[in-house]
Amino acid sequence: MVNAENFNGKAKEEGIKGFWKGNLPQVIRIIPNSAVQLFAYETYKKLFKGKDGELSVIGRLAAGACAGMTSAFVTYPLDVLRLRLSVEPGYQTMSEVALNMLREEGVASFYYGLGPSLIGIAPYIAVNFCIFDLVKKSLPENYREKAEASLLTAVVSAGLATLTCYPLDTIRRQMQMKGTPYKSVIDAFAGIVQRDGVIGLYRGFLPNALKNLPNSSIRLTTFDMVKRLIASSEKEFQRITEENREKQNQNAKIE
């Protein structure tokens, strides 16, 4: 009921375009965020491999957590700008929000809520990426290469990660707001539970899941397919290189 009222109220006040308010900074943020996150994950996986060259479950979780925190730290100011632009009235552009924050709150305001954001993104990406990798690895080999398998696996992993880590995202958003009364994660957790009960930690879960599941699933599926395509191209390149080298050696012997 409340969501329907909010929907109708926003439509009357700002029109249809109001639902896309703050979308540009989201687009600007998500591109470098995804790029850093996925690249960092592959890098950290190499770092966390054991002496036998294998990557354990703990190693995958650690790689995912580090990748999530790395990308969050790099793009966090854009996340704050996106949130402020979408919920605070009177702003039309990111630059307006940024200048006002600098004047009134200082540079530190761009990192309000960074702690809970890092705490929230670390387990989310860790669970998401780890489940995706392990489920894909457990599939029969003839199914692993299929886009449908990647997509279904990505949906499952993103769903479990979202359900597990959403309360931390709620705390992060509360701490990012201007004039927030919360000074720490524990303070915010206690305040939200006291005010709204445990269910308050999951406020907005459904629309978030509806947005996040396809977003995360498509991203992971696309990355998985591109990674396989690159690996296949590298193998083909190596094969062609080897064939050319053999031909050159044969020609040299004939001469």
TrEMBL record:
Keywords (A to Z) from UniProt: Chloroplast, Membrane, Plastid, Repeat, Transit peptide, Transmembrane, Transmembrane helix, Transport
PROSITE patterns hit by this protein: SOLCAR (PS50920)
Subcellular location: Membrane; Plastid, Chloroplast envelope
Homology family: Belongs to the mitochondrial carrier (TC 2.A.29) family.
Gene source species: Acer yangbiense
GO biological process: transmembrane transport
Record carries keyword Cell membrane: no
Protein name: Uncharacterized protein
Residue ranges crossing the lipid bilayer per the database entry: 110-129, 149-168
